[in-house]
Structures are given as structure tokens and as C-alpha cells.
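Module 6 notes. Inverse folding takes a fixed backbone as the condition and produces residue identities as the prediction. Think of it as a translation problem where the source language is geometry and the target language is the twenty amino acids. Below is one complete input and output pair. Work through it position by position during the lab.
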């Protein structure tokens, strides 16, 4: 009896050992095929519904995407090698330790080769079905260390992208339209509120040339710049004095100051492929024509007041108000004093650094202004004692302003539904202009 039990145990051990040997060989065969660039052969060791997890992908990959990414990587590292150092096999599973090495001498996912050599350890964990085919593959390695070796000795792509965009603004402010080609790729397109549709480099040059003629002192003051190396977002203030002809119209002598937001999408060489420009065109026009039309100056001041709120600059907000102005904000039956108003303005800016108030309607009559705006932003900072949620907000607000004889705000009533804001901070779209009820 004891002899029979021993024989059974011995047979089971032999079967397990056989699986372990097969798993190790499968892993070796898989990476031999990968290094040879034979991804159809490599995929043959996997089930059709295999799940592949890689550290740089937020989603689990299927077999097709795995083959695409693998092919791209091997193409970028023609001498790539996956050296398997150790395999630990279990029942229908195996873990392994290996080293990837290769020299980036060819294009990698659309980026030019760096010429650098990468040598990095990685760990893997596989699961197998009854046939010994791989049902799941989980790979882990230090992505930052990989990128550091890949980009060693090369300029930081983020810094290069930001530098190129900032140099572009300098050329624009100097009216050097001939230099714009240095920063723009072939097939460049620009979207701008003054343009009916995306336009080529010639339209961009025409805009800059026209602005420089109309506003010789024009300046793009960049307040914030953010980049990931391929996209650059800049926000700031455009200012200038209209002392030259603009679109055939005589100069008004007025100073213009408007906020702008620009998204530049760059190619692998750091040149701009697409430029999307956003600013309040009506505010620009209102400031430009202030004094020409009595209502234009009033509208310009209200829009400038809103722009100051967007900047989170309470001191500037008060410049458009009388010294004893009464400001009533949502839910307050009593006006806020300057300290309370400042705290509120700064709190919204801190909680939503990209906050923007877009005018939808504005009515001016009898020394009063009524305005309907849409407020948007992203909660990337603390707000009302709560940490940032990362959620976007979008709600409507209405403002009614009483003006004194000089067009300064003597009373301001601003209202919106706080519940909408609260819901959106929690990730609930109720109240959004894009929610089902709208």
C-alpha cells in the first residue's frame, strides 16, 4: 500500500516537473521569436484571448496590440535581446527574471533614434492553460530608468518644446514673420477666433503682420506654460496699443489687454503641427472700440472685470469697482467686504487654476449691465477645505451690475446653483451643459 502511494506521488512529481520544463522552454522560445522580430511565431505561444499587462499601458492589451507594440520596439532596437536568467515554475504559472538590452539606432514609435544603449532588468509572470499556452502575461520594469537610459545625454524634450514655443512668441512680438517657419512644421495649421476655419502658415504670418502694424507695442506675456514634450499649453495676457491701422480702419488709440490660451501640438522634431488659439474676441473688440461707442467701454470694463476674476487677481478686480462697491455672491444676502471678496476670488483660482468665464449674453441699459456666462475649469487645487478631485466643472451663472457715472461697478450681484458645482466636483455631470437634461 505504501509502495503504491509512493509510486503515485512520484508520477505526479514527474508530471509537475515536466510542466515546469515546458514552461521554461516556452518562455525561452517566446523571447527567441521576439528578438528575431517574428511576432506571429511569438504570438503562437499565446491563447487568442491572452491578456498582456505592461507598465506603460493603463489598459490590458490583447494579442494584436501586443504584437504591434513589440514589433515597434524591436524595430527601434534592431539588436534587441531578452536574456532570461531564471524561471520559477508552478502549477499552470511561471515567473521569470530577465534582462532587456538593445541600441536605439532606428525610429521608435515615430521618434528619431537616440543612438543610446539600454540595458534593463525586468520580471514577468505568466499563466498557462491545460495545453501549455499562455493565457496572461504581466511584465514589470522601471519605465523611468528605461527612458533615462534611452534619452541619456540628449536635451529634455519638454524643455526643448517649451523653449521653441517661447522663442516663437518673441518672433511674433518682434513682427518677424519670416522666422515663423523655423518653428512650424510642413502642413502647419492654425485655429484662431479671427479665422473661419483652420488655416496654413501664410494665414498665421498674415495675422502676426497685421497685429504688429496695428499694435506696434504688442506683447504676449506668458503666465504659465505646461508641456509633455509633444504638446505645449500656454496661457497669458496679450496687450498692445492700437496706434496703427487695423484691417483698413483708422487707429483708435485704445489699449487692449486680453487673456489667451494656446495649445501647440509638436512633431518629433519639435516643430508645431497644429496651433489652437483661444481668447475672448468680443472683449478684444470692445476694448479696441472703447470710447468710440459708449456701450463698448462699459462692456470692455465688465469683460475685463471677469478676466481679472479668471486671473484670481482681486486687486485688479477692485480697479473696475467703486471704493465702496457692494458685491453680493451666491447665497449671500449681505455684501462681502474687500477681504472676503479677495478670499473668494483667490479660493476659486486656487481650486480651479484654469477657470474661465465665457460671456454668452450681455445687455447694457440705464447704467446697468446684465450678463450670462458659462464658467468652466478643472479642480486641480484644494477648494473649500477639500483636496483636488481632478474633475471638470461647467455651469451657468448670471451677473447684474450697477454702474456709477464713470462706468465703475457700484453693486454686483452674481448667482449660480452651488449644488451643480458640488455635484460636478464629485464627478456627477448633473447641471453640466452637456448632461442629459440639456
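Target side of the pair, the amino acids:
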Amino acid at each position: 500500500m505504501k509502495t503504491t502511494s509512493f509510486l503515485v506521488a512520484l508520477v505526479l512529481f514527474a508530471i509537475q516537473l515536466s510542466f515546469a520544463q515546458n514552461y521554461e522552454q516556452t518562455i525561452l522560445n517566446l523571447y527567441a521569436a521576439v528578438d528575431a522580430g517574428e511576432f506571429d511565431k511569438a504570438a503562437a505561444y499565446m491563447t487568442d484571448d491572452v491578456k498582456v499587462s505592461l507598465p506603460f499601458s493603463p489598459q490590458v492589451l490583447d494579442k494584436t496590440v501586443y504584437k504591434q507594440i513589440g514589433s515597434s520596439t524591436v524595430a527601434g532596437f534592431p539588436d534587441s535581446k531578452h536574456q532570461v536568467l531564471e524561471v520559477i515554475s508552478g502549477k499552470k504559472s511561471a515567473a521569470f527574471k530577465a534582462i532587456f538590452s538593445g541600441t536605439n539606432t532606428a525610429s521608435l514609435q515615430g521618434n528619431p533614434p537616440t543612438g543610446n544603449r539600454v540595458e534593463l532588468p525586468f520580471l514577468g509572470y505568466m499563466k498557462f492553460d491545460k495545453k501549455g499556452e499562455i493565457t496572461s502575461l504581466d511584465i514589470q520594469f522601471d519605465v523611468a530608468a528605461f527612458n533615462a537610459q534611452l534619452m541619456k545625454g540628449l536635451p529634455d524634450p519638454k524643455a526643448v518644446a517649451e523653449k521653441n514655443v517661447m522663442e516663437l512668441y518673441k518672433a511674433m512680438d518682434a513682427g518677424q514673420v519670416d522666422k515663423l517657419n523655423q518653428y512650424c512644421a510642413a502642413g502647419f495649421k492654425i485655429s484662431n477666433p479671427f479665422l473661419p476655419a483652420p488655416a496654413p502658415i501664410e494665414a498665421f504670418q498674415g495675422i502676426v503682420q497685421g497685429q504688429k502694424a496695428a499694435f506696434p507695442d504688442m506683447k504676449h506675456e506668458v503666465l504659465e506654460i505646461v508641456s509633455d514634450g509633444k504638446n505645449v499649453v500656454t496661457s497669458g495676457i496679450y496687450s498692445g496699443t492700437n496706434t496703427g491701422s487695423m484691417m483698413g480702419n483708422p487707429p483708435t488709440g485704445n489699449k487692449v489687454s486680453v487673456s489667451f490660451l494656446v495649445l501647440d501640438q509638436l512633431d518629433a522634431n519639435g516643430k508645431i503641427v497644429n496651433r489652437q488659439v483661444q481668447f475672448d474676441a468680443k472683449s478684444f473688440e470692445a476694448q479696441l472700440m472703447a470710447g468710440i461707442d459708449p456701450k463698448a467701454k462699459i462692456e470692455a470694463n465688465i469683460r475685463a472685470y471677469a478676466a481679472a476674476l479668471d486671473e484670481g487677481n482681486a486687486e485688479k478686480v477692485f480697479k473696475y469697482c467703486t471704493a465702496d462697491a457692494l458685491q453680493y455672491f451666491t447665497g449671500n444676502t449681505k455684501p462681502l467686504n474687500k477681504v472676503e471678496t479677495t478670499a473668494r476670488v483667490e479660493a476659486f483660482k486656487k481650486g480651479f487654476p484654469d477657470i474661465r468665464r465665457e460671456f454668452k449674453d450681455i445687455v447694457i441699459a440705464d447704467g446697468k449691465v446684465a450678463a450670462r456666462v458659462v464658467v468652466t475649469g478643472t479642480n486641480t487645487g484644494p477648494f473649500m477645505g477639500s483636496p483636488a478631485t481632478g474633475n471638470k466643472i461647467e455651469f451657468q451663472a448670471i451677473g447684474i451690475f450697477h454702474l456709477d457715472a464713470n462706468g465703475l461697478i457700484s453693486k454686483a450681484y452674481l448667482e449660480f446653483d452651488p449644488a451643480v458645482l458640488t455635484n460636478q466636483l464629485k464627478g456627477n455631470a448633473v447641471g453640466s451643459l452637456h448632461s442629459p437634461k440639456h
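Reference fact for the lab report: The CA atoms of residues 206 and 248 lie 14 Å apart.
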